[in-house]
Each structure stands twice: as C-alpha cells, then as structure tokens.
C-alpha cells in the first residue's frame, strides 16, 4: 500500500513539474510576442473587429465567473472527432444591421467598448488582450497552475505596460 501511495505522489510531483515547465515556456513566448508587438507598433488607432470586441467581453466576463466558452471540455462523443476549436475563441455574435457605435460597413468599429465607455486602441493593445485571454484560459482550465499563472499574468502585464510606456515617448 505504501508503494502505491509513493508512486502516486511521485506521479503528482512529476505532473506538477511538467505543468510549471510548460507555464514558464509559455510565459517566455508570450512576453517575447508582446515585446515584438510593441516594437512594431505604429501607435495609430486601429479599427477593431467584432472578434476583438468579443475577446474584451470574455475578459470582462472572466472577472466575475468562468466563461463557458473558455472552459475546455474533456467529454467527447465517440462518434464525433474532437473539435480543434475547443481551445480557440468562438466566433462573436454577428454584428447588427447598420453602422451604429462607430461601426464601418464591414462590421469593424473605431473603438472597443468596455462596459459603458469607448476606447481607441492600437494594434499592440489588441494583441496584448488576446495574449491575456490565453493566460485566463490556463487559470480556468489548469487549476494546478492557478497561483503560478496569476503571478505570470501580473509579470506579463507589467512587462507589456513598461514596453508600451517606454516606446510611446520615443521621439523617432
């Protein structure tokens, strides 16, 4: 009985080490991507797509509950193949008719709506929001990494903020 318990503990420790290694690699890649986004930014407001607005809506929803769209389900039917879209953001609701709230005929808007306020955004901000949503998926789906993932999110946001503030004052 002790041997079985010892093997289970060893397996759990191995799983935890693997998960932490994944998170560290994942975080390093996201920080690099964020820095690249900021380096290549033109610092001009961009139109936002309904999909980008949906990312913001999911982030806002995740502040109060786990959005069902971000929960990766392990239950799959034996008669249907697993969907590759379970780990990606589902398509947003289709835009309404007309061009209200600054929407262009393509459905894009000139700003993001966050609660009751509108914000102009640049491409680096849109990319950072999408990367942040990926971190939120980890927090929701890998409870083993919640504490570590939250510290990585804080670090990611600090790095993103520092990079954007130092480049926004660039005179070139």
Fold topology:
Layout: H1 2-39, H2 50-62, E1 112-114, E2 117-119, H3 123-141, H4 146-168
Antiparallel strand pairs: 1-2
Description of the molecule:
The chain has 172 residues and is mainly α. It has one domain. 54% of the residues lie in helices and 3% in strands. It contains four helices and two strands. The chain has a two-stranded antiparallel sheet. A hairpin with a 2-residue loop joins strand 1 (112-114) and strand 2 (117-119).
Task: Write a compact overview of the structure shown.
By secondary structure, the protein is mainly alpha-helical.
Amount of beta strand: under 5%
Distance between the termini: 69 Å
Largest sheet: 2 strands, antiparallel
Level of helix content?
40-55%
Radius of gyration (Å): 20 Å
> What is the 3D shape?
elongated
Taken together, the total number of domains comes to 1
> What number is the mean pLDDT?
80
Strand order of the largest sheet: 1-2
* SSE arrangement, N to C: HHEEHH
Classify the secondary structure makeup into a structural class.
mainly alpha
Work out the helix count.
4
Task: List low-confidence stretches.
Answer: 77-90, 92-101, 167-172
Number of E strands: 2
């Amino acid at each position: 009985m002790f041997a079985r318990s010892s093997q289970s503990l060893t397996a759990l420790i191995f799983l935890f080490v693997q998960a932490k290694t994944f998170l560290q690699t994942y975080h390093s890649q996201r920080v690099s991507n964020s820095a690249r986004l900021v380096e290549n930014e033109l610092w001009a407001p961009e139109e936002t797509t309904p999909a980008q607005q949906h990312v913001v809506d999911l982030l806002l929803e995740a502040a109060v509950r786990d959005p069902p769209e971000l929960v990766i389900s392990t239950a799959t039917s034996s008669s249907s193949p697993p969907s590759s879209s379970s780990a990606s953001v589902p398509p947003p609701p289709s835009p309404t008719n007309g061009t209200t709230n600054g929407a262009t005929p393509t459905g894009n808007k000139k700003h993001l709506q966050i609660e009751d306020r509108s914000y102009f955004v640049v491409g680096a901000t849109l990319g950072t929001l999408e990367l942040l949503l990926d971190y939120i998926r980890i927090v929701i789906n890998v409870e083993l990494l919640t504490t570590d993932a939250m510290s990585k999110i804080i670090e990611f946001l600090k790095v993103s903020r520092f990079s954007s503030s130092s480049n926004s004052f660039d005179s070139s």
